[in-house]
Design goal:
The protein is of the alpha/beta class. The protein has helices at 9-30, 63-69, 140-147, 170-180, 196-204, 213-219, 235-247, 265-282; strands at residues 40-41, 47-48, 96-107, 114-125, 129-133, 155-160, 163-164, 181-184, 253-257, 285-289, 301-306, 309-315. The two termini are 35 Å apart. The relative contact order is 0.15. Bound molecules: adenosine-5'-triphosphate and magnesium ion (MG). Residues 140-141, 257 line the site of magnesium ion (MG). Adenosine-5'-triphosphate binds at residues 49, 107-108, 114, 116, 134, 136-142.
Length: 327
Amino acid sequence: MREKKPAPSGAFSNRRCRVAQLNLRIWLRSITYHSGLKPSANASGETIQQHGKRIAFDSSRSPTAGLLAAGVAVINLPLAMEPLTPEPAARGPRRKVFHVRGLTKVYGLGLAEVHALAGVDLDLFEGELVVLLGPSGSGKTTLLNNLGGLDLPTAGELRYQDFDLTTAEESDLTRYRRDSVGFIFQFYNLIPSLTARENVALITEIARDPMPPEDALQMVNLGARLDHFPAQLSGGEQQRVAIARAIAKRPEVLLCDEPTGALDVRTGIVVLEAIERVNRDLGTLTVVITHNAVMADMADRVIHLSDGRVLNEHRNSVRAAASSLNW
Ligand SMILES: Nc1ncnc2c1ncn2[C@@H]1O[C@H](COP(=O)(O)OP(=O)(O)OP(=O)(O)O)[C@@H](O)[C@H]1O
Ligand SMILES: [Mg+2]
């Protein structure tokens, strides 16, 4: 695992100033827009299921939460918090990143009870690219949201390295989401009034050990589109901005929920190539949910979910290049 250095306190306070300035700028530029955001999480870790527009939100929790109240941003970040530093774990090529045992998630009560996860057992390892397949309603998104600290399980074990996600304080979960996890959703959730570079800068301004936004955009082959607004970009390019935004903080884990679901084949492959490159070059544990069984070929490991459980899994002896896929 990469060692990340906490920012010195002086730098941190400068960073807070920059964040405040950036937030103010975003607020002013975005106030007349609707966000079009899809799934997100509020400061207490509850998943917001509705699609963008104006989001009821407790803006007193953080300045960025205030932006959400105007339907603007996705992040919730207590700016003055120290970085979460997981316990050092054993090094090696197959270091376990996630430990999942008997994970259950029940939504609703009584007759309305839904067992979205019904006892998932799973280990996820450093540097893997894992494809998660399963029919609609099988619990894929629920599992991903639990891994990413967006949602909490009802019962079972869920650990990220030595960090117990089931008993974590909300502030630790927030740091975990901020520092360790990059999310990519089917709909890109970019802020329409910010350029590609500014959408990524939104994260790099607050991340612990970010790469420059330009580098992140270069990684997804968008170095020539830095100053374009989302409306001036194709769907695939917007999704690649979302990938750049997710990886610019150098997360340990990249969680992708149907990242090509809204794209045609050709564009989808370009997006998959970007994900593949991040996984390969940064060594980021990457989990990709898809309905597209063809994508299984690009994985190290393929896990099938059914009725909230792992039905089966298999390992590919050779990973297919994303560019070779077709569907
Ligand atoms: N917030 C919620 N409240 C109640 N039930 C929920 C909630 N979120 C998910 N569910 C239910 O949990 C089950 C699993 O949902 P989930 O979204 O994880 O499925 P999925 O495998 O991602 O499906 P899809 O492929 O359609 O996205 C479904 O029956 C769903 O209706
Ligand atoms: Mg889903």
